Amino acid sequence: MNMQVENKELTVGSVQIAGVSSSSVFLIGDTQCITLSSIFDTPPESLIIGPLVPLAAEK
Questions:
Q1: Which residues contact 47 (CB under 8 A, 6 or more apart)?
Q2: Per-residue pLDDT of the chain (59 residues; tens, 9 = 90+)
Q3: How far apart are CA 12 and CA 14, in angstroms?
Q4: Please, which domain of life does this record's source organism belong to (predicted)?
Q5: Contact status, residue 12 vs residue 28, Cβ threshold 8 Å
Q6: Are 11 and 29 in contact (CB under 8 A)?
Q7: What is the 3-state secondary structure (H, E, C) of 1-59?
Q8: Plot region of 29 (φ>0 → left; ψ -120 to 50 → alpha; else → beta)
Q9: pLDDT value at position 27?
Q10: Using an 8 Å Cβ cutoff, are 31 and 7 in contact?
Q11: How far apart are CA 29 and CA 12, in angstroms?
Q12: What gap in Å lies between CA 22 and CA 45, rounded to an integer?
């Protein structure tokens, strides 16, 4: 596959983030390499996940 990328100027005025998950990435611009890792040192049996609460929508 051949891909041609033409980078132009990028201007970001403002950013509003309503919430962040336990595993998230927020990028503006270019990057060469992203390496993500996660380690749990707790046994899965002791992990308690409660009910999910939806984020309030902005009006």
A1: 40
A2: 888 888 788 788 888 888 777 667 777 777 777 777 777 677 777 767 777 777 776 66
A3: 6
A4: Bacteria
A5: yes
A6: no
A7: CCCCCCCCCCCCCCCCCCCCCCCCCCCCCCCCCCCCCCCCCCCHHHCCCCCCCCCCCCC
A8: left
A9: 78
A10: no
A11: 10
A12: 19
Quote the tokens at residue 35.
């390496």
Tell me how far CA of residue 19 lies from CA of 36, 42, 55, in angstroms: 20, 25, 7
First to last CA, the chain: 44
What's the residue count for the chain?
59
Spatial CA neighbour of 38 closest among 52, 24, 18, 17: 24
The pLDDT value given to residue 58? 66
